[in-house]
Design goal:
Oligomer: single chain
Strand order of the largest sheet: 1-2
Distance between the termini: 10 Å
Length: about 325
């Protein structure tokens, strides 16, 4: 099984603490636990939940800790927010947002992928991550999409996190990217594999979620990296994703959104698609997107824009390219 750092580009700091000891990498070969997951038992978790705007959600949110089941679904920012904020209203807004019942019931993949340790734990098991994706993909998409859009606008307001966003606070920038990319991440994460009759590759002979196959594929630990593209995290050099129908379908979802300049994906899709085509064939995915940034076509301007955006990530994430490739090589050699 890949190391935590290999699987999740934003979990390096935890990986260093949990898996690297005196220069040695420790692997847990025990079978991963497979707890039963349950949707929260409250009115906001149903598909018929009424639309709630961000200000209303922040004002009416509750922690609901007493109503959670023994084993809950993953929560965004379950490690907390800390105290490194310029604007006092910002952490209050963020905590109200992530504790809002409707927000929780949406099980937002885009905010869990980069900022949830409980989500990372779920990816250790195919059955557990499948249960999480079942919950995430069965929500009322219009309700959740509208709520994320409302929070996106509210986050940068002067009464919420404007100052911290402008000063590139890492958690604020990551929250904003997750909210902004909810729609495209939802569409990409909810794709399922289409079994191919008589295909010798056993991974093709199932109808699992594409993400579930990717994140649990120990023979190709870089398969899950493309799911970080909507968050504005470029595909690391040396990535070797499996050239299969899931990769094609996921990149097609991203291509449809990449021309939108308001999306973080706009800055990293073309370079990622070009890299995929170099490995899988010249026309494997669409690498020609109007209005999308490209480091090759802009004389490096695309890379500068991506680098500027990346300053919003925490210090651990900035060293990810070398760690990811090195860890992947180590795992392949085991």
């Amino acid at each position: 099984m890949p190391t935590e750092a290999t699987e999740h580009p934003e979990s390096q700091s935890r990986a260093v603490k949990g898996h690297f000891v005196d220069g040695r990498i420790i692997f847990d070969h025990n079978a991963a636990p497979q707890p039963a997951l349950h949707r929260r038992d409250d009115p906001a978790s149903t598909d018929t939940a009424s639309m709630t705007t961000a200000p209303e959600a922040a004002a009416t949110s509750s922690s609901s800790d007493s109503s959670t089941t023994t084993t809950s679904l993953p929560r965004a920012f379950d490690g907390g927010f800390g105290t490194n904020f310029t604007q006092p209203s910002c952490p209050t807004f963020l905590r109200s947002m992530v504790n809002n019942d409707t927000f929780i019931s949406c099980v937002p993949f885009s905010l869990l992928l980069q900022n949830s340790m409980s989500f990372f734990d779920a990816t250790r098991s195919l059955s557990t991550i499948t249960a999480v994706l079942n919950a995430s993909c069965s929500v009322s998409f219009p309700t959740c999409s509208g709520l994320m859009s409302s929070f996106t606008l509210a986050l940068r307001s002067s009464t919420a996190c404007q100052d911290d966003y402008n000063s590139e606070n890492p958690q604020v920038r990551q929250a904003y990217a997750g909210l902004l990319s909810y729609d495209v991440s939802y569409n990409g994460s909810c794709l399922k594999n289409a079994p191919i009759p008589d295909d010798p590759d056993a991974r093709q002979d199932n109808d699992n979620y594409c993400f579930a196959n990717a994140v649990t594929n120990t023979t190709s630990p870089t398969d899950s990296y493309i799911y970080y593209l909507p968050l504005g995290i470029p595909l690391p050099a040396g990535s070797l994703p499996t050239c299969d129908a899931c990769l094609t379908a996921t990149m097609a979802v991203y291509a449809a959104a990449a021309s939108n300049k308001s999306q973080p994906l706009n800055l990293d899709y073309v370079d990622a698609a070009t890299m995929v085509n170099e490995m899988c064939g010249p026309a494997f995915v669409n690498a020609s997107i109007p209005n999308a940034a490209s480091s090759s076509s802009s004389g490096g301007a695309g890379k500068k824009s991506a680098a500027s955006r990346a300053r919003g990530l925490d210090a651990a994430s900035k060293g990810w390219v070398g760690v990811l490739v090195g860890a992947a090589a180590l795992l392949a050699a085991l």
